[in-house]
Design a protein that fits this description.
Number of helices: 16
Distance between the termini: 42 Å
Shape: elongated
Strand content: 15-25%
Length: 396
């Protein structure tokens, strides 16, 4: 087998034939031409073999033995006498006006999912602009090709684009399929309403369940654009406010008993799921509860409501259980718990809807953690569009 025959098998590009190969220290230059004598006119779909012009086109391909591979293609420009048009011959392995083959672009794109454009640029000897354009183009194609069927259940949450700048973005998720629908560089209610209205009334009417935290901008949006949706408060955000009430009581005790060791390093033992407590944490809680029975009563109330929401109750059963819990909680007359009860009273309708649908936005918290990783690593994004593509391809 000759060197040319060997390289033709390695490249496996049936549309071209190799004429010669030039080995250099860090690269291999392969000179080639089309395997066909004629081409099909893209205008009238008829064959022609009338060559108007020849020129050389150079582009990168996948590396071989660690060396860069540069294809030098003698490309032709044809004339079609049937429609009096000129056209360049086309090849399936490289797109028009590109200096890289499709498979090499795919190779670079897969690297971009786990690395930065700067690192890939140095590794592949490509410009930052080329790497970034490859990522933008391929990620856009990948996202566009994803099948998006009927969306029934939507969850929304926010994340800070720049910490400390009050610059918030919104992530919208299909909670049934666990797929990101979109990421928006704002969270203002008016803009969110405009966004969903632009998706169409029919799309909005198909939404049956909407779930988010207790930010009124999200709920105001849902009420305006999803006429058939049941609105659900995310149970974990809701429990967060109860945990805050317990923690405020802990802080008050810490201030009151500054020198007592039992009230130090107590926070996570109080807020943690009891099934995950260590023996040391359990003993610590037992000692504290002896010193402060009021704290024990608050702790017990926290666990009772958690137990209620973990049971498979109907909406009606859930309402009965929650009302009993509220009556018990009021009797404690704790100022921090009373603040929580006021909040619960304002959102009770949407809190109870959890028993009907049992959806939460916990999956979005996982997505937000990935977003934080993307921000922390930088990845070379210079605008929100690139940032958004980076996030979306992280979940491909």
């Amino acid at each position: 087998m000759t060197e040319i025959e060997c390289f033709e098998q390695i490249l496996d590009l049936k549309e071209i034939q190799i004429e010669r190969i030039d080995w250099q220290k860090h690269s291999i230059h392969i000179y080639c031409s089309s395997s066909f004598e004629e081409a099909i006119c893209p205008h009238c779909i008829k064959k022609t073999n009338v060559i108007h012009q020849k020129y050389e086109r150079q582009f990168r391909d996948l590396p071989i033995t660690g060396k860069e591979v540069h294809l030098h293609l003698h490309q032709r420009r044809f004339y079609c006498s049937d429609c009096n048009k000129y056209f360049n011959e086309r090849f399936s392995f490289v797109d028009s006006n590109r200096k890289t083959t499709r498979r090499y672009e795919r190779h670079v794109y897969e690297y971009t999912k786990n690395s930065t454009p700067q690192k890939i640029s140095a590794q592949e000897n490509l410009s930052w602009h080329t790497v970034n354009e490859i990522h933008k183009r391929w990620s856009s194609e990948e996202i566009a090709s994803r099948h998006v069927g009927k969306v029934r259940v939507i969850g929304m949450d926010e994340f800070a684009v720049k910490k400390g700048h009050r610059n918030y973005a919104t992530v919208i998720v299909d909670l049934e399929r666990v797929e990101i629908i979109d990421i928006l560089d704002y969270r203002e209610q008016k803009k969110l309403i405009d966004y969903f209205e632009n998706r169409g009334a029919d799309w909005c009417k198909e939404i049956e369940v909407f779930c988010s935290d207790m930010w009124r901008g999200f709920f105001g949006t849902a009420k305006s654009v999803f006429p058939n949706a049941t609105l659900v408060v995310d149970r974990f955000h809701f429990f967060g406010y109860l945990n805050k009430a317990i923690d405020n009581e802990r802080k008050a005790l810490r201030r009151k008993f500054k020198t007592q060791e039992e009230f130090k390093r107590l926070k996570w033992a109080l807020l943690k799921d009891p099934t995950g407590l260590t023996d040391t944490q359990k003993n610590k809680l037992d000692k504290v509860f002896l010193l402060c029975p009021q704290l024990k009563l608050l702790y017990n109330q926290k666990e009772k409501i958690r137990f209620i929401f973990n049971k498979r109750l109907t909406h009606e059963q859930g309402e009965i259980e929650l009302n009993k819990w509220i009556d018990e909680a009021k009797k404690l007359n704790n100022r921090y718990l009373n603040t929580f009860l006021e909040l619960l009273n304002n959102w009770k309708e949407y809190v109870l809807n959890y028993f009907s649908h049992r959806f939460t936005t916990s999956i979005i918290e996982g997505i937000n953690n990935t977003i934080k990783t993307v921000k922390r690593m930088g990845y070379g994004f210079r605008n929100f569009g690139n940032f958004k593509l980076r996030i979306l391809t992280s979940f491909a």
